[in-house]
């Protein structure tokens, strides 16, 4: 259930298998649409993986040399900075920009290893955003970034949980949305509501990421499959991310999962999602666990092979 | 952990056989190590010694089961211990290999990056990486003919997406009926009164303890917007503060000048000469400051030198 090919068209077939060791895939996805593309990552329900998704999409984009500004719009409980390993470098926030204490470019924290990745936090944990125009902050920010000398290719906004003022502020500048959900009915109901609100606001380009899928449970019909989720929401699938302990490890390390080498299942799924996002593509098939042929040998030898 | 377990295995292997063999030939070490009273009775009767050995056996039998097990099957134990030792050595070797392997890959980088300790270009992920196609690489193999995919060595069936455009539109229609919503554009604090020019539908009422509910706003909306759009130069508030400081500094300089000149009149000639030198120096400073101000570019010079907030205030302090 974890992965699916981007497209199953014959034209995208892998090149002839003459060199099985070397995989002849493309080296980067094709960027579709005018930039900067403003994407809000939202969910309704809390704790389903919005921040994880944002951090990984942003890191993956940056690694593809597509400049990205990740905006932590979760004013009350920010943690995108932690996932990107930038928590010690956030001194200035959008709130300081509004107040005139610094310029916008000074409030952007550039990742030291991924130079195309920048982080903007909305405010410091205990400081408060001005009420009168707080909701307009991100609209101005996105607009200012668009007019900057080097506009980013993507502005990814990590939305707070719920549908209150934080949500309103986060979605204001967005043109597309990534709706993260887990395959359970509570998350799905919230996701449906959020999709409704987004559509009311004119954001029609909504794609879902189904997070924390466990193929074994899906197989035993103890968990909804990504196809079930899609059937309930009626939205295109951007990705299906399996439950993966590496997610927590990467969170604790402050290094996004997509940078893991060797890749991890969730990291690879998020990377696939990034490629689809860049190409404005959706999944055409999902993977379903079926026959279990033990393939332990490959795993064992890959350990020695490095 | 691993070395400790090796030590344990060695002690099991080597130590136990020794006292067992010695027990028959040289009773002394046994006595010395096991029983204090045995030393006193050392060179007495052999029968008593036999009794002592019996006692000792009883003691040994009463101590932990591991020792008892060793005592029982001494012959097997050597082989078993040897095998155990080899196994543990192998396990340790494997652990070491894994550790080295991890270190090469990401472990150390992770540690350094954690808490932002890594300063000199985070090596692990800074190294240029060839972008693998996440859809087509050694870990992901998609076989379209059989509609199967092999991911991380596991085989999956490919189930095509069933959602059609019509269904998608239907869902959208359903939602538009269910959720009617207009994004609020005005945030107001709960309890505040509605301004006359605001549409109540566009208002979001914010509780007082919300992170958005700043107690007071020092800047108006237009200034805030300009602040966000500002591309270069000194941020507005920093600039304003700088100007305010500059004015205050000037004022205080003028006061100094005034008071020092007053004082000068009361001083003796020698002191007058000295102090006039000093005050002329400070006057020059203040004058140069005023000249700058009068040029209509009060902060531009310092702006160029130090666009940064901190260094700006520092330069002010130095003045
Ligand atoms: N695929 C996954 N596998 C395992 N754990 C996951 C996965 N995705 C997310 N998690 C874990 O779930 C927790 C919540 O994730 P995250 O912070 O990204 O959610 P969130 O939606 O941003 O939460 P909030 O609503 O509080 O902002 C984290 O501890 C994260 O490690
Ligand atoms: Mg979050």
Describe it.
The complex is a heterodimer of chains A (306) and B (319). With 306 residues, chain A is of the alpha/beta class. Helix content of chain A is 36%, strand content 16%. Chain A has 12 helices and 9 strands. Chain A has an 8-stranded mixed beta sheet, sandwiched between helices. In chain A, a hairpin with a 6-residue loop joins strand 3 (109-110) and strand 4 (117-121). Mean pLDDT of chain A is 84; it is low at 1-24 and 294-306. Chain B has 319 residues and is mostly helical. Among the domains of chain B are: 76-118 and 126-133, no CATH class; 163-230, no CATH class. Chain B is built from 15 helices and 5 strands. A 3-stranded antiparallel beta sheet of chain B has the order 1-2-3, with no helix packed on it. Chain B has a two-stranded parallel ribbon with strand order 4-5. In chain B, a hairpin with a 4-residue loop joins strand 1 (140-143) and strand 2 (148-151). Classes of the chains: A alpha/beta (306), B mainly alpha (319). Chains A and B meet through helix 3, helix 4, helix 5, helix 6 and helix 7 of A and helix 8, helix 9, strand 2, strand 3 and helix 10 of B. The complex binds adenosine-5'-triphosphate and magnesium ion.
Number of H/I helices of chain A:
12
Q: Alpha-carbon distance between the termini of chain B? A: 62 Å
Question: Could you tell me the strand content of chain A as a percent range?
Answer: 15-25%
As a percent range, the share of strand residues of chain B is: 5-15%
Low-confidence stretches of chain A: 1-24, 294-306
| Gyration radius from CA atoms of chain B, angstroms | 44 Å
Tally of DSSP β-strands of chain A: 9
Lay out the secondary structure.
The complex is a heterodimer of chains A (306) and B (319).
Chain A: E1 37-42, H1 50-63, E2 68-72, H2 80-83, H3 94-99, H4 104-107, E3 109-110, E4 117-121, H5 137-147, E5 154-158, H6 165-171, E6 176-181, H7 185-200, E7 205-213, H8 215-219, H9 226-233, E8 237-242, H10 245-253, H11 265-279, E9 285-289, H12 296-305
Parallel strand pairs in A: 1-5, 1-6, 2-4, 2-5, 6-7, 7-8
Antiparallel strand pairs in A: 3-4
Chain B: H1 2-14, H2 17-25, H3 27-34, H4 37-40, H5 46-62, H6 65-72, H7 74-105, H8 107-113, H9 123-126, E1 140-143, E2 148-151, E3 154-160, H10 165-178, E4 186-189, E5 203-206, H11 221-229, H12 236-266, H13 269-294, H14 300-305, H15 309-318
Parallel strand pairs in B: 4-5
Antiparallel strand pairs in B: 1-2, 2-3
The structure holds adenosine-5'-triphosphate (ATP) and magnesium ion.
Binding site for ATP (chain A): 45-52
GO biological process, one term (chain A): negative regulation of cell division
GO molecular function, one term (chain A): ATP binding
């Amino acid at each position: 259930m974890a992965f699916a090919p981007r497209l199953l068209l014959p034209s995208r077939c892998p090149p002839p298998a003459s060199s099985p060791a070397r995989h002849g895939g493309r080296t980067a996805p094709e960027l579709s649409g005018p930039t900067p593309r403003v994407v809000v990552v939202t969910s309704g329900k809390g704790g389903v993986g919005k921040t994880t998704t944002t951090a990984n999409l942003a890191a993956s984009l940056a690694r593809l040399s597509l400049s990205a500004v990740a905006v932590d719009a979760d004013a009350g409980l920010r943690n995108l900075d932690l996932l990107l390993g930038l928590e010690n470098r956030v001194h200035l926030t959008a709130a300081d920009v509004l107040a005139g204490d610094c310029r916008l470019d000074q409030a952007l924290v550039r990742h030291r290893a991924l130079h195309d990745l920048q982080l903007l936090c909305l405010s410091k944990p205990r400081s408060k955003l001005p009420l009168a125009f707080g909701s307009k902050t991100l609209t101005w920010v996105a607009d200012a970034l668009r007019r900057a000398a080097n506009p980013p290719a993507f502005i990814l906004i990590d939305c707070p949980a719920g549908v209150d003022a934080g949500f309103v502020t986060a979605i204001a500048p967005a043109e597309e949305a990534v709706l993260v959900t887990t395959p359970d009915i509570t998350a799905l109901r919230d996701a449906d509501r959020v999709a409704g609100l987004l559509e009311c606001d004119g954001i029609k380009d909504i794609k879902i990421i189904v997070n924390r899928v466990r193929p074994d449970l899906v197989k035993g019909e103890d968990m909804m499959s990504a196809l079930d989720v899609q059937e309930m929401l009626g939205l295109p699938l951007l990705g299906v991310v399996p439950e993966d302990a590496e997610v927590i490890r990467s969170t604790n390390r402050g290094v996004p999962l997509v940078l893991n080498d060797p890749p991890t299942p969730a990291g690879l799924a998020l990377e696939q999602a990034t490629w689809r996002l860049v190409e404005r593509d959706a999944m055409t098939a999902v993977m379903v666990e079926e026959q279990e042929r033990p393939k332990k040998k490959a795993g064992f030898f890959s350990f020695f092979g490095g | 952990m691993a070395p400790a377990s090796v030590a344990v295995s060695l002690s099991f292997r080597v130590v136990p056989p020794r006292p067992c063999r010695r027990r028959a030939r040289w009773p002394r070490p046994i006595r010395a190590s096991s029983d204090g009273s045995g030393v006193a009775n050392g060179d007495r009767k052999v029968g008593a010694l036999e009794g002592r050995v019996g006692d000792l056996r009883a003691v040994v039998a009463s101590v932990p089961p591991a020792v008892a097990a060793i005592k029982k099957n001494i012959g097997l134990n050597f082989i078993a211990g040897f095998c155990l030792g080899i196994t543990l050595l192998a396990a340790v070797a494997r652990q070491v290999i894994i550790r080295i392997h991890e270190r090469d890959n990401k472990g150390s980088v992770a540690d350094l990056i954690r808490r932002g300790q890594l300063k000199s270009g985070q090596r692990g992920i800074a190294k240029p990486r060839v972008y693998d196609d996440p859809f087509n690489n050694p870990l992901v193999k998609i076989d379209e003919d059989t509609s199967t995919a092999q991911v991380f060595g596991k085989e999956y069936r490919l189930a095509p997406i069933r959602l059609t455009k019509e269904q998608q539109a239907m869902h959208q229609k359903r939602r538009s009926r269910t959720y009617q919503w207009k994004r609020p554009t005005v945030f107001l604090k709960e309890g505040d009164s509605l301004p006359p020019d605001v549409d109540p539908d566009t208002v979001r009422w914010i509780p007082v303890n919300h992170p958005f509910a700043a107690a007071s706003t020092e800047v108006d909306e237009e200034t805030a917007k300009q602040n966000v759009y500002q591309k270069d130069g000194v941020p507005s508030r920093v600039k304003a503060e700088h100007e305010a400081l500059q004015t205050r500094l000037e004022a205080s300089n003028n006061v100094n000048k005034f008071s020092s000149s007053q004082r000068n009149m009361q001083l003796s000639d020698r002191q007058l000469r000295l102090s006039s030198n000093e005050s002329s120096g400070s006057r020059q400073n203040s004058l140069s400051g005023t000249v700058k101000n009068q040029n209509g570019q009060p902060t531009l010079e310092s702006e160029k030198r130090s666009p940064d907030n901190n260094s700006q205030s520092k330069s002010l302090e130095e003045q």
